[in-house]
Write a structure and sequence with these properties.
With 130 residues, the chain is mostly beta strands. The protein contains no helices and 9 strands. 25% of the residues are buried.
């Protein structure tokens, strides 16, 4: 596979957009997915190794859960729209009854090319709990 065709799909444009802070909103007692990241080739929309995650700063008023799930690409007009790839989901679960703002930071370790190259990024998530 041509390494130039490997790209990182980020629901919140974490890698492709260079975004380091993302704000999301949820209701009290309601978990929210803050990130759904996967690596894939555009030429065949085939999954590669999903990023690994490390929680580097914990939220004060909730917890973070991660899971590896098959999840579709939903961006309109994307060459792989509708295709299901393996993604690393990151969800924030607010503490019971909490309302306010919370935050946490994740480190992502991901493959950069078919030669085994690796990269890392950190992203901070701010969660407004209404």
């Amino acid at each position: 596979m041509n390494s130039g065709r490997l790209i990182c799909c980020a629901a919140l444009t974490l890698f492709a957009g260079g975004c380091n802070t993302t704000t999301v909103t949820t209701k009290a007692n309601t978990p929210v997915i803050v990130s759904a990241l996967g690596m894939y080739s555009v030429s065949g929309c085939n999954s590669w190794e999903p990023p690994e995650t490390t929680l580097t700063t914990r939220p004060t008023n909730g917890r973070v859960q991660t899971a590896l799930k098959a999840f579709p690409i939903t961006e309109k007009g994307h060459p792989c729209e509708g295709k299901v790839i393996d993604r690393r989901l990151v969800a924030y679960v607010p503490s019971a009854g909490f309302r306010g703002q919370d935050s946490f930071t994740m480190k992502y370790d991901f493959i950069t090319n078919d030669g085994g190259g690796r990269g890392t990024r950190q992203s901070t998530f701010i969660v407004d709990v209404k």
